[in-house]
């Protein structure tokens, strides 16, 4: 193991990431909050996100998805049921609140006053011992809140069910790489049905997702992938996920020169969520599920990386796709792909 | 003190709120998650929110606001600095995460397994002792993240500065009243400048906010108000806030028959945020701040309450304002108000 080279590679990646992030800050595209992975968004950044959302809507319109939006939190018992904590305990966020009385409040404020005598980075978090768990957690992926809600309706129709969701998600992984945020938006199409329906859906979205990225004039590379499972046992689970080809990612160079960032992912959950939340098919079998996830911030950052910080100088067809005749360009792309 | 009557009034309000919420669920406008104050949004609900946002944008366009968007979280040290915990400790949400090793993970999962043997409502939260505070908290009001960011830029220009923000906010107050959510969106215009600039801004927005609600054919009633300060000392602070006329609210009957819900608020913070974050005016004095906040879910719910669950049956001019010639109708309203 060549640790010198590894260390040098990490340092180089940090430099790449920092330099790209500095560019985003200095051009006013993202706004520095002082915290890695937590950024304000400018109007131009949000206009790219809006344009992408419109394109993704047209790309999925013929699937007649059900439109659902959830706040960035979910019920804690649903989150516990999801088994997310088995795989990614380090990434999850739970919400805590003060539930005490006047006396506790006085003590909390005294703790906080003491903490605030120190510099920001040295502040004690002692006051937070007064925070108690609430019944909510942050949403770890946009599709999580939908399964228990859909399950309660009864079996999926014979031709399956498709849902369109978008939400801010939280992952506790502070990073200097702007492509790795703690709070970011995922847009997803989710399919609930038979294994054949879900596999066909995933294949279609690998093609359509690649089409979108191609129309945005970004490099397309789809590869087998695995989730970052926690701990010593994580590698075994990751290997198994790869062996079963459950996850593919569309990778684009974003902040780093030598490694690529997953901007879309195409996931087959098999009956994992179906079994947990008793999602059923019309014939009574356990429903399988799958989803395509669009990392809205990551695709947006990829556009800034490859086309420059000035959106007015982006290629005309990219500007047209985002803010012009979006529907016509998507329809034309879909027609071309079908021939 | 007539506690019987009080109890009867509370019971009646609960019945009102539950019946309105049941209507929203049964018409598929909001989606039940099983948790009070946490709801999914349907396409029709979101289309009303989108229409309102477009109208609010036109209503403020001549103010040339800076557009800023933040994720629904802020830096914990900024949140601590804000003094929110002095006034509303019970409403704030902090974000916690697992930061342990493999062994801790095993112990966490063992706790969780035990908890999950119980029914949802009886589950132990013992596993959450492994959750540690992160450096982020949930955003309590949409404008909070902007002050430290704006302060770092240096003094406000001589004619002040106006910011347009929108964010999901968290308040820990589970309620059966759909007008009181734990996760909801606030759109705000924020003014930073001299006391005269901020007072003039607030007066203008009391008028413009009333105009918007009038154009939506909802009843307009603006009243002096106070925030729900915590604890025994809270009443004194609330009385002082009223005596200084720092807060006005636009109240509309929403879920409850006999009491009204604050759908917009018009706030003068004096130099509270300016002093905390060292926001300065061009002449070196501490900047004053104020904001108008639009409760996006509350205004949307008021529309459903007053115009019915079927948006196709809403008055033509309300539909036109939301989804038709929004700009022309707002401009016409502003011109009428100016004469």
UniProtKB/TrEMBL annotation, chains A, B:
<dbReference type="GO" id="GO:0016874">
    <property type="term" value="F:ligase activity"/>
</dbReference>
<dbReference type="InterPro" id="IPR045864">
    <property type="entry name" value="aa-tRNA-synth_II/BPL/LPL"/>
</dbReference>
<protein>
    <submittedName>
        <fullName>Amino acid--[acyl-carrier-protein] ligase</fullName>
        <ecNumber>6.2.1.-</ecNumber>
    </submittedName>
</protein>
<keyword id="KW-0436">Ligase</keyword>
